[in-house]
């Protein structure tokens, strides 16, 4: 039986003699040394690692979910979409991958990262996913997003190059608030969304917006540093979200210790969270 292991790959990469367990986990995600780069493209960082860790922590559910169409909005270096493609398998296994970024350098770098790992995705230079909205409406089973979430002056949002990676406007919410309705449009009936947020983004309110659209939510990973507290939140459609939501294909009967810790540290949010129990 496989176990979900929450491990920082940057930490693991620092180990000179990784254990067989660490090697097994690392072989399921993109290797930092094979991730391409460009001065104008966001390098994989704590938030990227937190998102990939969330996917690893939910890997068994993802494999059972058997997503046909997976997508990343804001792919940057390609580290996350490449990790997802390695984790789940390729077209031959019935999975199709799409990635978008507003930064053309990121599109090229993501192509290189995918190629270096022998996996494939359709990568498109796009504002969120406007060029894919008609083509993929209601078809995306898994969407992953590490958005520009840093609170900045509004006029910094969407500017060219690397600044687009973090400039999030007021409360870091400008791009996030643009992504939420598009995600709702693109996600299939069984679609899951994994999104990185910062406490300053008011994740409680984000969950409320998604709840109004019929989604339940839970924290998959939480990371706190001296400067910021990151959460990776999973959203899924739930017909009974007004009452007690239930995660459709989860085999976890009880919340893990890390989710429980997240829940306890987020007590004011509790009415919105569904731990999957
Ligand atoms: C925080 S970086 C994350 C990069 C990568 N996903 C990762 O986790 O390492 C955010 C990315 O979103 C892209 N981005 C910003 N605004 C966007 C928009 N409106 N549409 C598509 N991509 C956008 C940026 O260019 C940047 O590559």
Q: What would your notes on this structure say?
A:
This protein has one domain (30-272): Vaccinia Virus protein VP39 (Rossmann fold), CATH 3.40.50. It is globular. Helix content is 31%, strand content 19%. The chain contains 9 helices and 7 strands; from the N terminus they run ααααβαβαββαβαββα. β1 (69-73), α5 and β2 (96-101) form a beta-alpha-beta unit. With 277 residues, the protein is of the alpha/beta class. α3 (46-57) runs parallel beside α5. The chain has helices spanning 9-14, 20-26, 46-57, 59-65, 79-88, 104-116, 174-186, 203-212, 257-265, and strands at 69-73, 96-101, 122-125, 140-145, 187-198, 215-224, 229-237. The site of S-adenosylmethionine has 27 residues, from α3, α5 and β2. Pfam families: MTS. It is found in: Nucleus.
């Amino acid at each position: 039986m496989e176990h979900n292991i929450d491990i920082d790959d940057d930490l693991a990469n620092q180990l000179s003699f990784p254990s067989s367990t660490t090697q097994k986990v690392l072989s399921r995600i993109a290797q930092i040394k094979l991730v391409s780069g460009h001065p104008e493209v966001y390098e994989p960082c704590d938030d990227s690692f937190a998102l990939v860790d969330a996917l690893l922590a939910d890997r068994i559910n993802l494999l059972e979910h058997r997503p046909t169409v997976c997508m990343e909005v804001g792919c940057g270096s390609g580290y996350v979409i490449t990790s997802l493609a390695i984790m789940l398998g390729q077209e031959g296994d019935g999975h199709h991958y799409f990635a978008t970024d507003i930064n053309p350098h990121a599109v090229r770098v993501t192509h290189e990262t995918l190629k270096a790992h022998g996996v494939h995705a359709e990568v498109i230079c796009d504002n969120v996913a406007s060029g894919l909205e008609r083509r993929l409406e209601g078809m995306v089973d898994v969407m992953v997003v590490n958005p520009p979430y840093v609170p900045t002056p509004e006029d910094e949002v969407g500017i060219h190059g690397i600044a687009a990676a973090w400039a999030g406007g007021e409360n870091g919410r400008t791009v996030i608030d643009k992504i939420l309705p598009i995600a709702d449009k693109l996600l299939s009936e069984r679609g899951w969304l994994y999104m990185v947020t910062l406490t300053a983004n008011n994740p409680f309110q984000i969950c409320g917006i998604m709840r109004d659209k019929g989604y339940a939510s839970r924290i998959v990973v939480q990371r706190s540093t001296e400067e910021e507290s990151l959460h990776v939140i999973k959203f899924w459609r739930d017909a009974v979200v007004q009452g007690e939501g239930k995660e459709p294909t989860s085999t976890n009967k009880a919340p893990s210790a890390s989710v429980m810790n997240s829940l306890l540290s987020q007590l004011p949010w509790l009415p919105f969270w569904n731990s999957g129990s």
